[in-house]
Every structure is written in C-alpha cells, then in structure tokens.
Amino acid sequence: MKDPVWWIIIAAALTLVCTFSCVLFTAPPETYLKRAHAKKPYDLIIVPGYPYDSSTGKWNDLMKIRVYWSYYLYKNGYASNVMYSGGSVYTPYIESKIMAMYGKGIGIDEQHIFTEERAEHSTENIYYSYQLAKKHGFKTIAVATDPYQSKLLRSYCSNTKNLDVDFIPIVYDSLEAMKMEDIDIEAETARAKQFVSLLERESKWKRFKGTLGFNIIKIEDTVPVRKHIHD
C-alpha cells in the first residue's frame, strides 16, 4: 500500500518549518560554547554517529571532527564522560564502537567512554542515548555535534517531552588549533554479526519518518546499558 499523500505533505511541511526556523533563530556556535562554559562540567555529552567505510581505511571527515570535538570538550573540562551513539546502519560497522575506539585513541580515558548501539537516525541518537544516560545516573547532559545537525536536533528536542539536554555545536576555530591526526583502530572488532543495510530494510518513506523521530521505540527498563568499547 502506498503511503498516504497527506502524510507526505505534512511531513514535508514539518521538515521545511523545522529547517527554516532553525536557520533563522539560532545563535552562533561560540554563544553555545560560552553558555556551556558557565555550566561545565556536564556529566555527559552525546555524540551522534556517522557511518564507517572500511574500504577507505580511515574515518570520514565528519566523523573525525565530531570525535575530536568530543575530545576537546572532555580535555577542557566541559564534559566528564562521552557517549557515542549509533548502530550498524549503512555499513556493517557499529558506528558508536568505531567512534569510541577513535576517542580512546586520541586521548579520552576509556573509563569515561560509553556507547549506545541501537540508534539508526539522529533523533534516535538523542532519544536512546538520553535514556541510557539516565540509567547511568547522569543528570546534566549535552549534545555535541556539527552546527547543522545541532540546529535540526534542537527543534526535535524542543518539541519532545522529557529530553532535557543542552547543545554544544562544534566551534571550528577551536578545532583548527588542534592537530587532528589519523590513527589506526581495530575496526573489525566493531563489525556487526548480522547486518542488512537500512537502505534494504526500510523504504524511503519509513527512513524519512525515522529522521523525524517517528520510528522511535520506547525503551523498557529491561534494555541493557552499554558501557565502554568492548561491551
């Protein structure tokens, strides 16, 4: 059965409203960093994942800057712990585990690295990570990612109950002062045992709804908490 036309129209309208409102009514990243400085340290920062492509033998630039930004915030006392979020979505590699390995490799203490391995969309990165963070007892939580994704996710969080998070979007000038090196990791240890790409599992319509948070399944108390790189 084809998806109802009115649903498509509503979803498209919501996306346009979200995008334009985010662009028009958002402060620069430096402003959010100053606010975070006044409230630091956060118990935890959530870092949304990005697909890892083993054919290149190195991390994607966007993954790299997200991980290095988490390191910057950890190193400079903005965050006591880091949670990377993302499952094996478009490639067989669990995004959060890959990013956790990189985070450890560049200097974040393994005991302060956590992973959320269920999310397949950015809205799910926030929702599932927030629930796991609460299970760990973390109270002050912020999302650390690139400015564009921060804008979109702020809109989602503002319309979702019980998601009390701040945002610390990447300040690129701060990253430029760092020497962001490529490092080697044992990526195969993060390969999912059973993998089918999201492109094969879900229609375009369902993936689109996922970006808006409509595919989220409420977490039950029995869902295990994942901690550290090799859990």
Question: Explain this structure to me?
Answer:
By secondary structure, the protein is an alpha/beta fold. Helices cover 44% and strands 8% of the residues. The protein is built from 9 helices and 5 strands, in the order ααβαβαβαβαβααα. It has a 5-stranded parallel sheet, with helices on both faces. Helix 1 (5-24) crosses helix 6 (147-158) and helix 3 (61-75) packs across helix 4.
The average pLDDT is: 83
| The CATH top-level class label | Alpha Beta
Helical residue percent? 40-55%
Number of domains: 1
CATH architecture label name: 3-Layer(aba) Sandwich
How far is the first residue's CA from the last residue's CA? 40 Å
In the predicted model, the low-confidence regions spanning at least 5 consecutive residues are 5-25, 220-226
Order of helices and strands: HHEHEHEHEHEHHH
Number of strands: 5
Tertiary shape: globular
Helix/strand-derived category reads alpha/beta
The CATH topology comes to Rossmann fold
**Rg for CA atoms:** 17 Å
| Major β-sheet strand ordering | 3-2-1-4-5
| CATH homology superfamily name | HUPs
- Summed up, the helix count is 9
Tell me the β content.
5-15%
Largest sheet: 5 strands, parallel
List its salient traits:
5 strands; Rossmann fold; alpha/beta; 231 residues; globular; five-stranded parallel beta sheet
Q: What is this entry, summarized?
A:
This protein is α/β, with parallel strands linked by helices and 231 residues long. It has helices at 5-24, 29-39, 61-75, 95-106, 122-136, 147-158, 172-176, 198-201, 204-211; strands at residues 44-48, 82-85, 113-116, 141-143, 166-167.
